[in-house]
Amino acid sequence: MKVAVLGAGGYAGSELLRLLTDHPGVSALWAVRRGEEARSWPQLAAAPASCTLEEAKEADLIFMSGPHGAAQRSAGEFLDAGVSVIDLSADFRLPEEVYAQWYGPHAAPQLQGQAVYGFPELDRAGIAQARLVANPGCYVTAVTLALQPAARAGWIAGEVVVSAASGVSGAGRNRPELSMGELAENFRPYAVTGHRHLPEMERNLKACGYSGPLLFLPHLLPMARGILASISFQPSRQLEEQELFALYQEAYAGESFLRVQQELPETKATLGSNRCDLSLRSDPHSGRVLVFAALDNLVKGAAGQAIQNFNLMCGLPETSGLPRAGLWP
Ligand SMILES: NC(=O)c1ccc[n+]([C@@H]2O[C@H](COP(=O)([O-])OP(=O)(O)OC[C@H]3O[C@@H](n4cnc5c(N)ncnc54)[C@H](OP(=O)(O)O)[C@@H]3O)[C@@H](O)[C@H]2O)c1
Question: Which residue, by CA, sits nearest to atom 2 of ligand 1?
Fold first, then answer.
């Protein structure tokens, strides 16, 4: 497959290049040039081939990894040219009216009908048929995977509280305010009363059977990558820890990238890998269930999940080109 990456100079785009360079299903890989932007990929063995936006129409598939709004402007012309699209932004994740509420007016409502939400663990069949895929948000991936089995089992009685923290790459590359001087020795919450991932999280949980309240408390961690979500909910009845583990292990038994483990997860074990590590506790003191999820926001939270979708769309093994082992230490 010939593949192009738009937004290749950004963090998620760079991660796409890293993972696609040695992907067995990719015969040609281009980084799309928009103009004279200064871009560098110190992590790659060699700079990738580049092409203009027009030349990218020679590709079979384009990954779009620009800011929100960018894919709405250009996805249509690629689809018309016969090029499939996987977009990493929020552009096609939400219904038009919900998108407008959180981001502003949608510029390509005519494409919404053909966009498929690209969450492999929720809808492999839909993704395999799609030509326009909306890759999920990074926090959303962690929270959905952490709650899906309990929601489907009807075990969440109400009030889900999510306290999550992300490394700074979650905010993109061009954020001078996230400098070493401001981040080091610092830990802070942000967007605590209206993070833009909320509607996507709530929509996913509703589809799994939970539509009660959700409190989402994101924090900024002074590290480059990684997300840890610590979640608690009131169960519909008293649940033994063994029952919880059995439910999650069964729900995710066939999944290549989900690990349900006894030990509490940690971000470092997932860095560079497409894994999401999950663990559970039943807390006798509060009576609440605790679920913990860790993943690499740039891999399972962005580029890796996009490549999982690419594999499904191309009929390749879902694990092609995707590391399951993380970096350690
Ligand atoms: N960072 C994460 O953890 C993460 C996780 C999930 C989803 N996402 C989503 O993925 C997208 C990229 O995120 P990021 O963190 O990689 O951001 P980023 O580091 O700021 O990179 C965005 C890149 O988009 C390109 N770009 C800028 N303006 C553009 C335009 N008008 N049209 C097309 N491309 C444009 C630029 O690349 P060039 O210089 O190569 O043109 C820029 O480097 C965002 O929509 C973000 O919400 C990010």
Answer: 170
Please give the model's pTM, rounded to 2 decimal places: 0.97
pLDDT of residue 237: 95
Residue range 216-264, pLDDT digits in tens: 999 999 999 999 999 999 999 999 999 999 999 999 999 999 999 999 9
pLDDT level of residue 37 (50, 70, 90 thresholds): confident
Count of domains observed in the chain: 2
Q: Please report whether residue 328 resides in a domain.
A: no
Query: Going by C-beta distance under 8 Å and a sequence separation of 6 or more, which residues neighbour residue 16?
Result: 5, 8, 63, 65, 303, 306, 307
Concatenated DSSP letters for 57-71?
A: GGSSEEEE-SSTTHH
Residues labelled catalytic: 138
CA atoms of 308 and 303, how far apart (whole Å): 9
Is the Cβ atom of 149 under 6 angstroms away from ligand 1?
no
Determine, yes or no, domain membership for 247. yes
Task: State yes or no: pLDDT of 177 exceeds 80.
Answer: no
Structure tokens, 171: 């905010």
Ligand 1: centre distance to CA 10 (Å): 5
Can you give the CATH number for the domain in which 145 is found?
Answer: 3.30.360.10
Q: Please return the burial class of 5, using the count of CB atoms within 10 Å of its CB with bins 0-12, 13-18 and 19+.
A: buried
How far apart are the CA of 46 and the centre of ligand 1, in A? Answer: 21
State in Å: Cα 88 to ligand 1 middle: 8
Name the strand (E) or helix (H) holding 313.
Answer: helix 304-314
Range of the domain at 126: 2-135+300-314
- Looking at the structure, tell me whether residues 60 and 119 fall in a common domain: yes
pLDDT band, very low/low/confident/very high, at 99 (cuts 50, 70, 90): very high
pLDDT tens for each residue of 207-229: 999 999 999 999 999 999 999 99
